[in-house]
Amino acid sequence: MRYDTVVIGGGPAGLAAAIKASENGGSVLLIEREARLGGILKQCIHDGFGVVRFGEKLSGPEYADRFIKELRRTNVQVSLFSFVTDTHKCDDGYSITYVCRDGMHTVQCSSIVLATGCRERTRNNIYIHGDRCAGIYTAGAAQNLVNIMGVMPGKNVVILGSGDIGLIMARRLTLEGAKVLGVYEAKSSPSGLTRNIHQCLRDFDIPLYLSKTVTRVFGTTRLEKVEISDVDEKMRPLAGSEQLVDCDCLVLAVGLIPENEIARDMLVPLDPKTKGAYVDQNCQTKTDGVYACGNALHVNDLVDYVSESGETAGIDCVKPAHKRKLIQINTEGKLLYVVPQLLDVNSDVSRVVMYFRASEELSAQRLTITADGQTIFTKVYNKLLPPEMERITVDFTQAASLRDLTVKLEDK
Amino acid sequence: MELVCIVCPNSCRLTVENHDGQVSVSGNKCKRGEVFANSELTNPMRSATTSVKTTVLGYPVVSVKTDGEIPKSKLFELMQLCDEIVIDKPLPIGTVLVDNLFGTKAKLVTTTDMEDTNE
Questions:
Q1: CATH architecture under which domain A1-119+257-321 falls
Q2: Which member of A231, A327, A356, B94 lies 3.0 to 4.6 Å from A338 by CB, making a disulfide possible if both were Cys?
Q3: CATH number of A323-412
Q4: Residues of B in contact with A71 (CB under 8 A)
Q5: Does B49 sit within 8 Å of A35, measured CB to CB?
Q6: Count of CB atoms within 10 A of residue A328's CB?
Q7: Is the CATH number of domain A122-254 3.40.350.10?
Q8: In chain A, what are the domain boundaries?
Q9: Do B6 and A62 touch (CB under 8 A)?
Q10: CATH class as words, domain B49-110
Protein backbone atom coordinates (compact mmCIF):
# COMPACT_ATOMS: atom_id res chain seq x y z
CA MET A 1 0.00 0.00 0.00
CA ARG A 2 1.26 3.46 -0.82
CA TYR A 3 0.23 6.81 0.68
CA ASP A 4 1.37 10.33 -0.07
CA THR A 5 2.02 10.82 3.61
CA VAL A 6 2.00 8.82 6.83
CA VAL A 7 1.37 10.74 10.05
CA ILE A 8 2.71 9.07 13.19
CA GLY A 9 0.73 10.05 16.28
CA GLY A 10 -2.97 10.93 16.64
CA GLY A 11 -2.75 13.74 19.20
CA PRO A 12 -3.42 17.41 18.41
CA ALA A 13 -0.39 17.79 16.10
CA GLY A 14 -1.04 14.58 14.16
CA LEU A 15 -4.77 15.28 13.81
CA ALA A 16 -4.11 18.76 12.43
CA ALA A 17 -1.39 17.47 10.07
CA ALA A 18 -3.55 14.62 8.74
CA ILE A 19 -6.55 16.91 8.16
CA LYS A 20 -4.51 19.51 6.25
CA ALA A 21 -2.61 16.90 4.21
CA SER A 22 -5.90 15.33 3.16
CA GLU A 23 -7.61 18.67 2.44
CA ASN A 24 -4.68 19.54 0.21
CA GLY A 25 -5.26 16.45 -1.91
CA GLY A 26 -2.96 13.92 -0.30
CA SER A 27 -3.71 10.30 0.57
CA VAL A 28 -2.99 9.97 4.26
CA LEU A 29 -2.51 7.19 6.80
CA LEU A 30 -2.67 8.24 10.46
CA ILE A 31 -1.05 5.77 12.87
CA GLU A 32 -2.07 5.91 16.55
CA ARG A 33 -0.92 3.45 19.20
CA GLU A 34 -3.84 3.99 21.60
CA ALA A 35 -7.50 2.96 21.39
CA ARG A 36 -8.72 6.47 20.63
CA LEU A 37 -7.49 9.59 18.87
CA GLY A 38 -6.73 12.74 20.84
CA GLY A 39 -3.42 11.94 22.51
CA ILE A 40 -2.82 13.47 25.93
CA LEU A 41 -5.85 15.78 25.50
CA LYS A 42 -8.08 12.81 26.35
CA GLN A 43 -6.96 12.96 29.95
CA CYS A 44 -6.57 16.76 30.25
CA ILE A 45 -10.16 17.21 31.40
CA HIS A 46 -9.56 20.70 32.86
CA ASP A 47 -10.46 23.72 30.76
CA GLY A 48 -8.39 26.45 29.15
CA PHE A 49 -7.68 24.87 25.76
CA GLY A 50 -8.35 26.64 22.48
CA VAL A 51 -8.44 30.26 23.68
CA VAL A 52 -6.23 31.37 20.75
CA ARG A 53 -7.82 29.21 18.04
CA PHE A 54 -11.48 29.10 18.98
CA GLY A 55 -11.73 32.09 21.35
CA GLU A 56 -13.30 29.93 24.04
CA LYS A 57 -12.12 27.83 26.94
CA LEU A 58 -12.53 24.16 26.11
CA SER A 59 -11.55 21.09 28.07
CA GLY A 60 -8.87 18.88 26.47
CA PRO A 61 -11.29 16.19 25.25
CA GLU A 62 -13.56 18.88 23.74
CA TYR A 63 -10.65 20.48 21.88
CA ALA A 64 -9.61 17.08 20.51
CA ASP A 65 -13.20 16.25 19.57
CA ARG A 66 -13.39 19.23 17.20
CA PHE A 67 -10.43 17.90 15.23
CA ILE A 68 -11.60 14.27 15.38
CA LYS A 69 -14.97 15.31 13.90
CA GLU A 70 -13.18 17.28 11.20
CA LEU A 71 -10.92 14.30 10.47
CA ARG A 72 -13.98 12.11 9.94
CA ARG A 73 -15.05 14.40 7.09
CA THR A 74 -11.77 13.69 5.24
CA ASN A 75 -10.48 10.54 3.55
CA VAL A 76 -7.70 10.00 6.09
CA GLN A 77 -7.19 6.32 6.90
CA VAL A 78 -6.79 5.83 10.64
CA SER A 79 -5.05 2.81 12.14
CA LEU A 80 -5.56 2.55 15.91
CA PHE A 81 -3.73 0.22 18.33
CA SER A 82 -0.81 0.57 15.92
CA PHE A 83 2.85 0.91 16.78
CA VAL A 84 5.59 1.83 14.33
CA THR A 85 8.51 -0.60 14.55
CA ASP A 86 10.60 0.41 11.56
CA THR A 87 11.02 3.35 9.22
CA HIS A 88 13.58 3.54 6.47
CA LYS A 89 14.35 5.27 3.21
CA CYS A 90 13.44 3.36 0.07
CA ASP A 91 13.70 4.10 -3.67
CA ASP A 92 10.83 6.53 -3.92
CA GLY A 93 10.28 7.75 -0.39
CA TYR A 94 9.93 5.88 2.87
CA SER A 95 8.87 2.46 4.03
CA ILE A 96 7.08 2.20 7.38
CA THR A 97 6.38 -1.00 9.26
CA TYR A 98 3.83 -1.03 12.05
CA VAL A 99 2.23 -3.65 14.26
CA CYS A 100 -1.50 -3.63 14.93
CA ARG A 101 -4.18 -6.09 15.98
CA ASP A 102 -4.33 -7.94 12.68
CA GLY A 103 -0.57 -8.29 12.45
CA MET A 104 2.29 -6.47 10.81
CA HIS A 105 1.96 -4.07 7.90
CA THR A 106 4.46 -2.32 5.69
CA VAL A 107 3.42 0.75 3.74
CA GLN A 108 5.28 3.15 1.47
CA CYS A 109 4.93 6.91 1.43
CA SER A 110 6.52 10.03 -0.03
CA SER A 111 6.63 11.89 3.28
CA ILE A 112 6.41 11.17 7.00
CA VAL A 113 5.05 13.51 9.66
CA LEU A 114 6.43 12.84 13.13
CA ALA A 115 3.75 13.92 15.61
CA THR A 116 4.85 11.72 18.47
CA GLY A 117 4.47 14.29 21.24
CA CYS A 118 6.69 14.38 24.29
CA ARG A 119 7.45 12.24 27.32
CA GLU A 120 7.60 13.17 30.98
CA ARG A 121 10.81 13.23 32.92
CA THR A 122 10.82 10.47 35.51
CA ARG A 123 12.32 9.83 38.93
CA ASN A 124 15.47 8.56 37.22
CA ASN A 125 15.88 11.73 35.18
CA ILE A 126 16.11 13.82 38.35
CA TYR A 127 18.12 11.36 40.45
CA ILE A 128 15.81 10.71 43.40
CA HIS A 129 17.53 8.10 45.55
CA GLY A 130 15.98 5.45 47.77
CA ASP A 131 13.71 2.44 47.72
CA ARG A 132 12.01 1.04 44.65
CA CYS A 133 8.50 1.12 46.02
CA ALA A 134 5.04 1.60 44.53
CA GLY A 135 3.28 4.96 44.70
CA ILE A 136 5.63 7.11 42.60
CA TYR A 137 4.01 8.46 39.45
CA THR A 138 4.66 11.06 36.83
CA ALA A 139 1.88 13.67 36.77
CA GLY A 140 0.64 12.33 33.43
CA ALA A 141 0.44 8.77 34.77
CA ALA A 142 -1.49 9.99 37.82
CA GLN A 143 -3.76 12.03 35.56
CA ASN A 144 -4.43 8.98 33.39
CA LEU A 145 -5.32 6.92 36.46
CA VAL A 146 -7.78 9.50 37.80
CA ASN A 147 -9.31 10.89 34.61
CA ILE A 148 -9.34 7.84 32.31
CA MET A 149 -9.22 4.79 34.58
CA GLY A 150 -11.17 6.30 37.48
CA VAL A 151 -8.60 5.09 40.02
CA MET A 152 -6.91 7.16 42.72
CA PRO A 153 -3.10 6.95 42.82
CA GLY A 154 -2.90 7.57 46.60
CA LYS A 155 -4.42 9.19 49.67
CA ASN A 156 -1.66 11.43 51.02
CA VAL A 157 0.14 13.03 48.14
CA VAL A 158 3.35 15.02 47.74
CA ILE A 159 3.73 16.81 44.41
CA LEU A 160 7.15 17.79 43.09
CA GLY A 161 7.11 20.54 40.47
CA SER A 162 5.01 23.71 40.34
CA GLY A 163 4.45 23.82 36.60
CA ASP A 164 0.85 23.97 35.42
CA ILE A 165 0.60 20.16 35.27
CA GLY A 166 1.64 19.82 38.92
CA LEU A 167 -0.80 22.55 40.02
CA ILE A 168 -3.71 21.10 38.06
CA MET A 169 -3.07 17.63 39.52
CA ALA A 170 -2.97 19.13 43.03
CA ARG A 171 -6.49 20.49 42.52
CA ARG A 172 -7.76 17.37 40.80
CA LEU A 173 -6.52 14.99 43.50
CA THR A 174 -7.89 17.27 46.24
CA LEU A 175 -11.33 17.39 44.63
CA GLU A 176 -11.31 13.59 44.39
CA GLY A 177 -10.67 13.29 48.10
CA ALA A 178 -6.90 12.94 48.44
CA LYS A 179 -4.91 15.08 50.87
CA VAL A 180 -2.27 17.00 48.95
CA LEU A 181 0.39 17.70 51.57
CA GLY A 182 2.21 20.23 49.47
CA VAL A 183 3.59 21.21 46.10
CA TYR A 184 7.39 21.42 46.24
CA GLU A 185 9.44 23.44 43.78
CA ALA A 186 13.22 23.46 43.48
CA LYS A 187 13.26 26.90 41.86
CA SER A 188 12.77 30.03 43.96
CA SER A 189 9.61 31.01 42.06
CA PRO A 190 6.66 28.92 40.88
CA SER A 191 6.79 27.76 37.24
CA GLY A 192 3.07 27.69 36.52
CA LEU A 193 0.71 30.52 35.62
CA THR A 194 -0.13 32.79 38.56
CA ARG A 195 -3.79 32.13 37.86
CA ASN A 196 -3.21 28.41 38.46
CA ILE A 197 -1.39 29.11 41.74
CA HIS A 198 -4.60 30.83 42.84
CA GLN A 199 -7.33 28.62 41.47
CA CYS A 200 -5.53 25.29 42.05
CA LEU A 201 -3.61 25.87 45.30
CA ARG A 202 -4.98 28.92 47.18
CA ASP A 203 -8.61 27.92 46.61
CA PHE A 204 -7.92 24.63 48.40
CA ASP A 205 -5.33 25.81 50.95
CA ILE A 206 -2.64 23.59 49.44
CA PRO A 207 0.80 24.78 50.58
CA LEU A 208 3.48 25.69 48.03
CA TYR A 209 7.09 25.22 49.16
CA LEU A 210 9.78 26.95 47.10
CA SER A 211 13.52 26.13 46.91
CA LYS A 212 12.85 22.61 48.17
CA THR A 213 13.02 19.25 46.43
CA VAL A 214 12.54 15.55 47.09
CA THR A 215 15.92 13.91 47.63
CA ARG A 216 15.02 10.39 48.78
CA VAL A 217 12.04 8.06 48.97
CA PHE A 218 11.35 5.38 51.57
CA GLY A 219 8.98 2.39 51.48
CA THR A 220 9.22 -1.40 51.54
CA THR A 221 6.40 -2.21 49.15
CA ARG A 222 4.46 1.05 49.08
CA LEU A 223 5.85 4.57 49.47
CA GLU A 224 5.85 5.52 53.18
CA LYS A 225 7.73 8.80 53.30
CA VAL A 226 9.83 11.17 51.28
CA GLU A 227 12.85 13.22 52.29
CA ILE A 228 12.62 16.91 51.42
CA SER A 229 15.75 19.05 51.25
CA ASP A 230 16.29 22.77 50.82
CA VAL A 231 18.25 23.63 47.70
CA ASP A 232 20.63 26.48 46.91
CA GLU A 233 20.20 28.89 44.01
CA LYS A 234 21.73 26.32 41.65
CA MET A 235 19.13 23.80 42.85
CA ARG A 236 21.73 21.70 44.72
CA PRO A 237 20.37 20.06 47.91
CA LEU A 238 21.80 21.48 51.13
CA ALA A 239 23.15 18.92 53.59
CA GLY A 240 21.51 19.11 57.02
CA SER A 241 18.24 20.56 55.74
CA GLU A 242 16.50 17.19 55.32
CA GLN A 243 12.95 16.76 56.61
CA LEU A 244 10.76 13.66 56.38
CA VAL A 245 7.16 13.84 55.15
CA ASP A 246 4.82 10.84 55.55
CA CYS A 247 2.91 10.11 52.33
CA ASP A 248 1.80 7.19 50.17
CA CYS A 249 2.08 8.89 46.82
CA LEU A 250 4.64 11.08 45.07
CA VAL A 251 3.60 12.84 41.88
CA LEU A 252 6.43 14.11 39.69
CA ALA A 253 5.69 17.09 37.46
CA VAL A 254 9.28 17.78 36.53
CA GLY A 255 9.34 18.57 32.85
CA LEU A 256 8.79 17.17 29.40
CA ILE A 257 11.14 16.00 26.66
CA PRO A 258 10.16 15.74 22.96
CA GLU A 259 9.82 12.10 21.88
CA ASN A 260 12.17 11.45 18.99
CA GLU A 261 12.92 7.74 18.95
CA ILE A 262 11.83 7.41 15.32
CA ALA A 263 13.68 10.57 14.27
CA ARG A 264 16.83 9.27 15.96
CA ASP A 265 16.44 5.90 14.22
CA MET A 266 16.27 7.70 10.90
CA LEU A 267 19.31 9.83 11.78
CA VAL A 268 17.29 13.05 11.58
CA PRO A 269 19.52 15.78 13.09
CA LEU A 270 18.19 17.00 16.46
CA ASP A 271 18.63 20.40 18.11
CA PRO A 272 20.15 20.00 21.60
CA LYS A 273 18.29 23.16 22.70
CA THR A 274 14.76 22.01 21.82
CA LYS A 275 15.53 18.25 21.93
CA GLY A 276 13.43 18.06 18.75
CA ALA A 277 14.47 18.05 15.11
CA TYR A 278 15.95 21.04 13.30
CA VAL A 279 13.22 22.21 10.94
CA ASP A 280 12.61 24.82 8.26
CA GLN A 281 9.57 27.13 8.18
CA ASN A 282 7.45 24.30 6.78
CA CYS A 283 8.33 21.94 9.65
CA GLN A 284 10.46 19.82 7.34
CA THR A 285 13.52 18.40 9.09
CA LYS A 286 17.00 18.37 7.58
CA THR A 287 16.03 14.98 6.12
CA ASP A 288 13.99 15.53 2.92
CA GLY A 289 10.44 14.27 3.26
CA VAL A 290 10.52 13.92 7.05
CA TYR A 291 8.46 16.48 9.01
CA ALA A 292 8.18 17.10 12.75
CA CYS A 293 5.48 19.07 14.53
CA GLY A 294 3.79 19.69 17.87
CA ASN A 295 5.51 18.68 21.07
CA ALA A 296 7.81 16.27 19.22
CA LEU A 297 9.37 19.39 17.71
CA HIS A 298 9.60 21.45 20.91
CA VAL A 299 7.52 21.50 24.09
CA ASN A 300 4.70 24.01 23.60
CA ASP A 301 2.68 25.61 26.36
CA LEU A 302 -0.50 26.09 24.32
CA VAL A 303 -2.16 23.32 22.32
CA ASP A 304 -3.29 25.96 19.82
CA TYR A 305 0.34 26.24 18.66
CA VAL A 306 0.71 22.46 18.57
CA SER A 307 -2.18 22.33 16.11
CA GLU A 308 -0.71 25.23 14.14
CA SER A 309 2.61 23.48 13.56
CA GLY A 310 0.75 20.28 12.67
CA GLU A 311 -1.15 22.20 10.00
CA THR A 312 2.08 23.72 8.67
CA ALA A 313 3.58 20.24 8.30
CA GLY A 314 0.35 18.83 6.85
CA ILE A 315 0.08 21.48 4.13
CA ASP A 316 3.70 21.16 3.03
CA CYS A 317 4.15 17.39 3.18
CA VAL A 318 1.80 16.75 0.24
CA LYS A 319 3.30 19.42 -2.02
CA PRO A 320 5.53 18.18 -4.83
CA ALA A 321 9.10 17.90 -3.54
CA HIS A 322 11.46 20.67 -4.60
CA LYS A 323 15.17 21.20 -4.13
CA ARG A 324 15.50 23.01 -0.81
CA LYS A 325 18.12 25.62 0.02
CA LEU A 326 18.40 25.74 3.80
CA ILE A 327 19.88 28.77 5.54
CA GLN A 328 20.61 28.54 9.24
CA ILE A 329 18.87 31.03 11.55
CA ASN A 330 21.42 32.06 14.18
CA THR A 331 20.49 33.20 17.66
CA GLU A 332 22.18 35.81 19.82
CA GLY A 333 21.50 36.91 23.39
CA LYS A 334 19.41 35.35 26.11
CA LEU A 335 17.32 33.05 23.94
CA LEU A 336 16.62 29.50 25.07
CA TYR A 337 15.69 28.52 21.52
CA VAL A 338 14.12 29.65 18.28
CA VAL A 339 11.99 27.42 16.02
CA PRO A 340 12.35 27.08 13.03
CA GLN A 341 16.11 26.89 13.11
CA LEU A 342 16.33 26.91 9.30
CA LEU A 343 14.85 28.90 6.44
CA ASP A 344 14.23 27.23 3.08
CA VAL A 345 14.77 30.16 0.72
CA ASN A 346 13.40 28.12 -2.18
CA SER A 347 9.90 28.15 -0.71
CA ASP A 348 7.60 30.89 0.60
CA VAL A 349 9.39 33.15 3.08
CA SER A 350 6.72 35.86 3.33
CA ARG A 351 4.82 34.58 6.37
CA VAL A 352 7.24 32.64 8.53
CA VAL A 353 5.82 31.75 11.94
CA MET A 354 8.57 31.67 14.55
CA TYR A 355 8.42 30.57 18.17
CA PHE A 356 10.97 31.45 20.82
CA ARG A 357 11.60 31.34 24.54
CA ALA A 358 13.83 33.58 26.66
CA SER A 359 16.48 31.73 28.67
CA GLU A 360 15.71 33.65 31.87
CA GLU A 361 13.17 36.08 33.29
CA LEU A 362 13.80 39.37 31.48
CA SER A 363 12.19 42.79 31.29
CA ALA A 364 12.39 45.56 28.66
CA GLN A 365 13.75 43.48 25.81
CA ARG A 366 14.01 44.08 22.09
CA LEU A 367 13.91 41.20 19.63
CA THR A 368 15.56 41.95 16.30
CA ILE A 369 15.85 39.79 13.22
CA THR A 370 18.53 40.71 10.73
CA ALA A 371 19.43 39.38 7.28
CA ASP A 372 22.96 40.21 6.17
CA GLY A 373 23.01 43.09 8.65
CA GLN A 374 19.66 44.54 7.53
CA THR A 375 16.92 44.67 10.18
CA ILE A 376 13.75 43.05 8.88
CA PHE A 377 11.80 42.60 12.10
CA THR A 378 11.81 44.15 15.54
CA LYS A 379 9.53 43.88 18.53
CA VAL A 380 9.71 45.14 22.11
CA TYR A 381 8.71 42.95 25.05
CA ASN A 382 8.04 44.40 28.49
CA LYS A 383 8.44 41.02 30.12
CA LEU A 384 9.69 37.62 28.97
CA LEU A 385 9.49 34.42 31.00
CA PRO A 386 11.05 31.07 30.02
CA PRO A 387 7.78 29.15 30.65
CA GLU A 388 5.91 31.42 28.24
CA MET A 389 6.58 30.76 24.59
CA GLU A 390 6.34 33.74 22.23
CA ARG A 391 5.08 33.60 18.64
CA ILE A 392 5.85 36.04 15.85
CA THR A 393 5.21 36.16 12.09
CA VAL A 394 8.10 37.40 9.99
CA ASP A 395 8.20 38.52 6.35
CA PHE A 396 11.63 37.59 5.02
CA THR A 397 10.87 38.92 1.51
CA GLN A 398 11.88 42.40 2.74
CA ALA A 399 15.46 41.22 3.02
CA ALA A 400 17.78 42.30 0.21
CA SER A 401 19.84 39.20 0.80
CA LEU A 402 18.82 36.05 2.68
CA ARG A 403 22.27 35.41 4.06
CA ASP A 404 23.49 35.50 7.62
CA LEU A 405 20.10 35.38 9.36
CA THR A 406 20.17 36.27 13.06
CA VAL A 407 17.55 36.50 15.79
CA LYS A 408 18.85 38.69 18.59
CA LEU A 409 17.41 39.46 22.00
CA GLU A 410 18.89 42.43 23.86
CA ASP A 411 18.07 45.07 26.48
CA LYS A 412 15.84 47.77 25.06
CA MET B 1 -6.71 44.00 49.12
CA GLU B 2 -4.81 42.15 46.42
CA LEU B 3 -6.40 39.56 44.12
CA VAL B 4 -5.20 37.61 41.10
CA CYS B 5 -7.71 37.48 38.27
CA ILE B 6 -8.23 33.89 37.08
CA VAL B 7 -10.41 34.71 34.06
CA CYS B 8 -7.61 34.29 31.50
CA PRO B 9 -3.91 33.32 31.44
CA ASN B 10 -2.84 36.98 31.80
CA SER B 11 -3.30 36.53 35.58
CA CYS B 12 -3.73 40.29 36.22
CA ARG B 13 -2.82 41.43 39.74
CA LEU B 14 -5.85 43.35 40.95
CA THR B 15 -5.93 45.92 43.72
CA VAL B 16 -9.38 46.11 45.24
CA GLU B 17 -10.47 48.89 47.56
CA ASN B 18 -13.75 49.04 49.41
CA HIS B 19 -14.92 52.56 50.25
CA ASP B 20 -18.15 52.10 52.25
CA GLY B 21 -19.55 49.52 49.88
CA GLN B 22 -18.17 51.27 46.77
CA VAL B 23 -15.69 48.78 45.33
CA SER B 24 -12.90 50.12 43.12
CA VAL B 25 -10.69 47.79 41.11
CA SER B 26 -7.35 48.61 39.50
CA GLY B 27 -4.64 46.59 37.77
CA ASN B 28 -7.08 44.82 35.45
CA LYS B 29 -6.33 44.83 31.71
CA CYS B 30 -9.98 44.29 30.78
CA LYS B 31 -13.52 44.68 32.11
CA ARG B 32 -13.75 41.02 33.07
CA GLY B 33 -11.22 41.70 35.84
CA GLU B 34 -13.63 44.14 37.49
CA VAL B 35 -16.51 41.68 37.26
CA PHE B 36 -14.26 38.96 38.69
CA ALA B 37 -13.13 41.14 41.63
CA ASN B 38 -16.71 42.11 42.51
CA SER B 39 -17.88 38.52 42.43
CA GLU B 40 -14.79 37.35 44.33
CA LEU B 41 -15.63 39.74 47.19
CA THR B 42 -19.31 38.84 47.41
CA ASN B 43 -19.88 35.34 46.07
CA PRO B 44 -16.80 33.72 44.48
CA MET B 45 -17.73 31.59 41.47
CA ARG B 46 -15.78 28.84 39.70
CA SER B 47 -16.32 26.61 36.71
CA ALA B 48 -15.42 23.00 37.44
CA THR B 49 -14.29 19.92 35.56
CA THR B 50 -14.35 16.38 36.90
CA SER B 51 -15.47 12.90 35.86
CA VAL B 52 -18.37 10.51 36.52
CA LYS B 53 -18.47 6.71 36.55
CA THR B 54 -19.88 4.69 33.67
CA THR B 55 -20.65 1.03 33.01
CA VAL B 56 -19.81 1.40 29.31
CA LEU B 57 -17.00 -0.84 28.05
CA GLY B 58 -13.72 1.07 27.88
CA TYR B 59 -15.00 4.04 29.89
CA PRO B 60 -14.52 3.48 33.64
CA VAL B 61 -15.18 7.23 33.91
CA VAL B 62 -16.12 9.99 31.49
CA SER B 63 -15.09 13.64 31.73
CA VAL B 64 -17.67 16.31 32.59
CA LYS B 65 -17.76 20.07 33.20
CA THR B 66 -20.07 22.73 34.50
CA ASP B 67 -20.96 24.76 31.40
CA GLY B 68 -21.02 27.91 33.51
CA GLU B 69 -19.88 28.98 36.95
CA ILE B 70 -21.14 27.66 40.27
CA PRO B 71 -20.41 29.07 43.74
CA LYS B 72 -16.90 28.14 44.85
CA SER B 73 -18.36 26.97 48.16
CA LYS B 74 -20.33 24.28 46.28
CA LEU B 75 -17.32 22.58 44.63
CA PHE B 76 -17.22 19.66 47.05
CA GLU B 77 -21.00 19.30 46.90
CA LEU B 78 -20.63 19.05 43.14
CA MET B 79 -18.10 16.23 43.64
CA GLN B 80 -20.61 14.39 45.85
CA LEU B 81 -23.31 14.87 43.25
CA CYS B 82 -20.99 13.46 40.57
CA ASP B 83 -20.21 10.47 42.81
CA GLU B 84 -23.86 9.48 42.71
CA ILE B 85 -24.13 9.48 38.90
CA VAL B 86 -23.52 6.29 36.90
CA ILE B 87 -23.80 6.48 33.11
CA ASP B 88 -25.03 3.19 31.63
CA LYS B 89 -24.97 3.89 27.90
CA PRO B 90 -22.62 5.62 25.43
CA LEU B 91 -23.52 9.33 25.36
CA PRO B 92 -22.51 11.92 22.77
CA ILE B 93 -20.29 14.82 23.86
CA GLY B 94 -22.24 17.69 25.43
CA THR B 95 -24.99 15.51 26.95
CA VAL B 96 -26.63 17.31 29.89
CA LEU B 97 -26.49 15.18 33.04
CA VAL B 98 -27.80 17.72 35.58
CA ASP B 99 -29.65 21.01 35.00
CA ASN B 100 -29.57 24.19 37.10
CA LEU B 101 -26.68 23.27 39.37
CA PHE B 102 -27.14 24.81 42.84
CA GLY B 103 -29.73 27.25 41.57
CA THR B 104 -27.46 28.66 38.84
CA LYS B 105 -28.05 28.39 35.11
CA ALA B 106 -25.01 26.09 34.86
CA LYS B 107 -25.48 22.51 33.73
CA LEU B 108 -23.30 19.46 34.18
CA VAL B 109 -22.39 18.21 30.68
CA THR B 110 -20.15 15.45 29.32
CA THR B 111 -16.97 16.57 27.52
CA THR B 112 -15.91 13.28 25.90
CA ASP B 113 -17.69 11.63 22.99
CA MET B 114 -18.39 8.07 24.19
CA GLU B 115 -19.53 6.94 20.79
CA ASP B 116 -15.93 6.02 20.03
CA THR B 117 -15.07 2.49 21.04
CA ASN B 118 -12.43 2.37 23.70
CA GLU B 119 -11.29 -1.01 24.84
A1: 3-Layer(bba) Sandwich (3.50)
A2: A356
A3: 2.60.40
A4: none
A5: no
A6: 12
A7: no
A8: 1-119+257-321, 122-254, 323-412
A9: no
A10: alpha beta
- pLDDT tens-digit series, residues A17-54: 999 999 999 999 999 999 999 999 999 999 999 989 99
Are the folds of A1-119+257-321 and A122-254 the same? yes
List the single residue in B6, B51, B63 with the smallest CB-CB distance to A199.
Answer: B6
Residue ranges with strand state E in B1-119? 2-4, 13-19, 22-26, 45-46, 49-54, 61-66, 70-71, 86-87, 96-98, 108-110
Model ipTM value: 0.92
B12, B112, B113, best to mutate vs chain A, most A CBs in 10 Å: B112
Alpha helices in A24-162 (DSSP H): 51-54, 60-72, 139-144
Distance from CA of A47 to the nearest CA of B (A): 7
Predicted confidence (pLDDT) per residue in A310-360, tens digit: 999 999 999 999 999 999 999 999 999 999 999 999 999 999 999 999 999
Q: From its phi and psi, is residue A238 left (phi > 0), alpha (psi between -120 and 50) or beta?
A: beta
CB A183 within 8 A of CB A165: no
Give the A:B interface size as CB pairs under 8 Å: 81
Asked if residue A405 lies in contact with residue A329, where contact means CB atoms within 8 angstroms, the answer is yes
Residues 6+ apart with CB under 8 A from A412: A364, A365, A366, A380
The pTM for the full model equals 0.95
Interface of B with A (CB under 8 A): 4-6, 8-11, 13, 46-51, 53, 58, 60-61, 63, 65, 72, 75-76, 79, 93, 111-113, 116-119
